[in-house]
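Narrative summary of target 7.
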Amino acid sequence: MAEPRVTLTRGDFLRSAFQIVDSAGLSALTMRALGDRMGVDPTAVYRHFPSRERLIDAMLDAVVQQAAESPNSGDNPRDRVMSVAVNIRRAFRSHPNVTGALATATGDFPSGFMITRMMISALRDLGLRDENLVRMYQTFEGYILGSCVFDTGGYPETFVIRQARYRLIGEPEFTEIATSPENVERVTENAYLDTINSLLDRCEHLVRH
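Modeled conformation, tokenized:
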């Protein structure tokens, strides 16, 4: 007697897509490769995702959702902004080969709007209003997403490459840091937190003046 046919869900295809990208990179993800991995014709993939671009958007949405659902480290607005910044970075580092897609994504993913509203709410609670609110939101968005692409794409090899670059700079301060990729990563992560704190200081300055 034939075994009952298993109905594959959108989530099943997404999980397999992450497995392909995590192990072989974004270039390895094609509708045919995903269908082959799932043991189905590629047309089955298209029933859930009309194009490769929409599939990648769905993957980005899943990563951002992971960040959106992570707990905040505090209740005050400053802590909430910091939590968003840290959680987004952590989520993309868990799938570093997906990060590069941020640069060309269509932006059509609901979790992105969830994160946006969380950030705007926290900035508003800090006291920002009118153009200052929009300007500082855009500053945070640009820095957080840009640094995710630059720092977490290809992780952990990113810091091996940066270690070599630090050595080539030839300045003693950089050579001292370039003793290991882990040391370069530590400095990079501290720089990220320093920048978020500096932007938060700027927000508070705008509110006071």
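The chain has a mean pLDDT of 93.
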